[in-house]
Amino acid sequence: MTRRQQWKERERFQKEEEERKMNLQIYVFVLRCIAYPFNAKQPTDMTRRQQKVNKQQLQTVKERFLAFLNGETQIVADEAFCNAVRSYYESFLKSERASRMVQSGGCSANDFREVFKKNIERRVRSLPEIDGLSKETVLSSWIAKYDAIYRGEEDTRRPTQRAHMGSVSELILSKEQLYEMFQQILGVRKFEHQLLYNGCQLDNVDEQAAQIRRELDGRLQLAENIARERRYPKFISADMEVLYVEELRSSVNLLMANLESLPVSKGGPDFKQKLKRSSMNNSFLDLGDEGDILSKSDVVLSFTLEIVIVEVHGLKSLAPNQVVYCTMEVEGGEKLQTDQAEASRPQWETQGDFTTTHPLPSVKVKLFTERTGVLALEDKELGRVVLNPTTNSPKQAEFHRMVVPRNSPDTDLRIKLAVRMDKPPNMKHSGFLYASGQRLRKRWKKRYFVLVQVSQYTFAMCSYREKKAEPQELMQLEGYTVDYCDPQPGLQGGCVFFNAVKEGDLVIFACDDEQDRVLWVQAMYRATGQSYKPVPPQLNRTTNRKEGNPKPPTPISLNPSQRQGVEDLISATPSRFDHSTLFRVLQKKTLQHRMNDSFSCLGWFSPGQVFVLDEYCARYGVRGCHRHLSYLKDLMDYSEKSALVDPTLLHYSYAFCASHIHGNRPDGMGTVTVEEKEQFESIRSRLMTLLMNQITHFRYCFPFGRPDGALKATLSLLERVLMRDITTPVPSEEMKNLLQKCLEKAAQINYSQLLDYAQIKVDPEEAADKQLEDMLMLGELCIEVLQQNDEHHSEGREAFSWWSDLLADHAEAFLCLYRQNLDSALQVQPADSWNTFPLFQLLNNFLRTDPHLCNGPFHKHLQDVFVPLVVRYIDLMESSIAQSIHRGFEQETWQPVRSLTNNLASVPLPKVPNLSLTLPQMPSFSAPAWMGPLCENTLHGINLPDIFNGSATSEDLFWKLDALQMFVLDLNWPEPEFAKHLEQRLKLMASDMMEACVKRTKSAFDAKMQKASKSTEFRVPLSVCTMFNILMDAKKQCSKLCVLDCSQEQYHSRIDVLIDETFKEMISSLISKFAVVLDGVLSKLSRYDEGTFFSSILSFTVKAAAKYVEVPKPGMDLADTYITFVRQNQDILRDRISDELYIENLFEQWYSSSMKAVCVWLTDRLDLQLHTYQLKTLIKIVKKTYRDFRLQGVLDGTLNNRSYETIYNRLTVEEATAAVKAGGALQGLSMRDSDEEDI
């Protein structure tokens, strides 16, 4: 190793050794703060911190949720909950920002739960209402299922126990736990702690209180030295120098008052036995005032004595069976008696408890035996013993010789007893001393002295006589200095000496034992509060006693240098240290320990840490501004390293420092040093940069709105930092402009991060389809980002009403970056390409629902880009539909086609014939609403009958018109006027197309009717039924395709009129055709009119032929043929025409025209009698026609019209006439009871 390396190694070792010594020194001060706190308490109202989630736990949670989504768990859930979990898994758990949250150390299981809860609240609110099931119940159920997924297979009791233990450690820590924590914080080893603990006498409350008094006295002396030598820190104003000393004094006075307010205790601050307090001023700064002089009545002591009588030896003068007992009493108190015992076994083990105020009480114990004589008034005393115990007397039982009466044979009577006298809390030491002074105790005499603590700052040396409660002499120790001294010549009594010196007084004490002298000097040293520590002439470290108890030697052997190091640490004067520097180190290490523990603290100290730091600052005079400035530096260091720090915590510390610098005196300190102001300005600038950076990266600094309320707190803190002083608010425009700049940068950062996440490289040379696909995916991601911003980062509007406007501007800037790539991708798309419409629908559906972005700059630009495309598309579609109508009807076979509903999802719009350009398929058409029921039935597997509608051309026309209108409707065009223009144009186009369709159908119908047969062989062609169906479909579609608004009149009312008139004409034409057939039948019956030549020939021929062969009944074939004609046409119309109303109307008109034609024919023959054959034929035709039309649903009012009644009456008369003349010529045919006849 070279010299340079050796030098570096030596330098490093020295640096580590210095750091270790400094940590040990800090630990000594911390030990004293923990052992005897008198300023701070552990806070119990701090927010409970949750356990952190680490990387391994995050991976485990991901696996559990993935297992649920794959159906590998036993948790039952509906589809809605599964969709919510899938969204949560994809958007949160798998996101990079969730990993960053975990890595930052500020993420807890509660954060995971809150993100899920916020996600499902939006989903559940959008669900429809369900009777009997409230949405709050659904939310509770979903949260319970989430908890089950998150926990997985873990025992549900274990997390509860861990959380309970964590909450306890977060609230209250014992002294031992605090010692252990700060050993870890400062790197102190266990044996070092033991050495320092024993050396500092932390278990001795009196020593700790005395240490505090010495520290405060040292701080007062330091303040006086500063004022005397004018060694002031550099202040921002020279007037603050005098105020600085006053602040030091007042802070010490406050600490003295706090110390004085503590009860004088035996077991530390938790022992609450209070003593009688003097009326003097608690502060020892006012020494010399008459009010400070103690009186003898101010010193009150109370002792508890326990007298235990065990047995008596040497009792020989009594018979073995004689009864003996003992009595015990304390001078001036009650008398107690033991149980009776036999003289052969005088044993009791009886305890008596007494209370006295005498430091030197007189205890009397007597032994008695019962007198059995009748005249005996008192029992016989066998012996007595009188003791004068003290608190230092032995506690174990000992034998004492008893004084016996004269002439008693029991001369060696001894009693075994123990007298235990407890020391009260305010009695610090006691014993017999020789004393002599200038003012009091002028005679050198042995006295019993007691060192009494009247209050935390008032001690007195009191001498007592036996059986006296008040002291004989009293010496108040304020202002005295105790020390060891050499033997005094001329004084008889005492071996070792010490004295107490005060201006104008000297008191010399002497005792017989060196160890006793050490204990007295130590006790008085604690009481006087002097800074000088007396050193005994010969100090034996291993046999030193404290409080009268031997101290065992330490189990750790130390060499002299190590012993000296420990002594130096313990005896170091706190007022000589720069506690600002020491506290900065302590606070930094404490924060480091806190940030690395298992809790998501966000920079907040635990209650135990707050307690120790508060106590340290108060006890050693660390200025509040310095404390918070250091805290701010440390917190910003962590925040700049991407650790999550609560901005509320930064705000609290910054506000404290700002108030102090600007003279608000939050901690009572009115002085401001130049160093504090410079550090504050530096921190203010650094904090401004940090906050602006956090707002710029708000999506990553506050992911998913966590920590809760952090963004709002950051904005409030930024406003506070911008303030020039504590009273003048920041102008709203200044704050707004600053945030606007931050959010503009945030837009660029977020968009670049989005491109990296999507792995999209904007390349103008890429294929048009690939660029459009990238823009579609990027558009979805942009919408997701903006939705997350609005959902998780809109809390700033609670602090600033204009935050929503700034977020809207940020969104516009974000979309503006997307707009550049969008425009370049749209420019390379081929002409007349409609593949971009889904992109428009995606963006427009999001923008139109956002109140801040709707019709904003990006939205308007999007409309400007797509207006020409929409117009061009509609133009081409109009031409295509028009040409398809023309070509289709020219080639139309008028054959009915099945509904296209089943195949709508895959049916493209036909290409426009004879056009050079190619029209692609329309994007994402859904089935028209009027075809919905057919879709449902078909999809559910119901075998529908053949449903015939119109022809191929008409069905294609109606579907195209509906699909085109649905397409434009799905665009949801945001600009009202253009949307209305599109609607009007499409309605007008639909009206024109339907008008052309109706007219072409009517002309084809007329042509069919002209070519149709006029005999009973005529059957309605299927093409005619198809034409009727076309008109019916047109009628139905008219209300949907040609009406602008349900609340308005029809845009093209002439379409309705045209369809109705066309219906009437077609029905009339068809009825006319039916009438022509009936006329042909009636004309054949006219041949049998009475008086005609043809009628007589036919009658003669039939009669002659009937003699030889069976002749068919004349007229029945004609009737049957007509009835068959009617029935078959009825069935055709009923089966092939889909509208029931029009069928009924057609049948009513047909029936009415038929009855009218028969009625007219009969009216023309009123003067003639009907031929038998005419009568039979008409009866059958009329009866069957009536019956058939009634079965077809024609109402009775129409069936029984006047024509039918006229026919019925005439045929009934003719039937009666024929029955009279011909008898059975009608062969059972009759107009009566026609309903009961078999048809």
UniProtKB/TrEMBL annotation:
Residues 820-1001 form the MHD1 domain. GO terms for biological process: dense core granule exocytosis; positive regulation of exocytosis; protein transport; synaptic vesicle exocytosis. It holds the Pfam family MUN. Residues 532-561 are annotated as: Disordered. Keywords: Calcium, Cytoplasmic vesicle, Exocytosis, Lipid-binding, Membrane, Metal-binding, Protein transport, Synapse, Transport. It is found in: Cytoplasmic vesicle membrane; Synapse. GO terms for cellular component: cytoplasmic vesicle membrane; glutamatergic synapse; presynapse. GO terms for molecular function: lipid binding; metal ion binding. Residues 286-403 form the C2 domain. Residues 426-529 form the PH domain. PANTHER family: CALCIUM-DEPENDENT SECRETION ACTIVATOR, CALCIUM-DEPENDENT SECRETION ACTIVATOR 2. This is Calcium-dependent secretion activator 2 isoform X5.
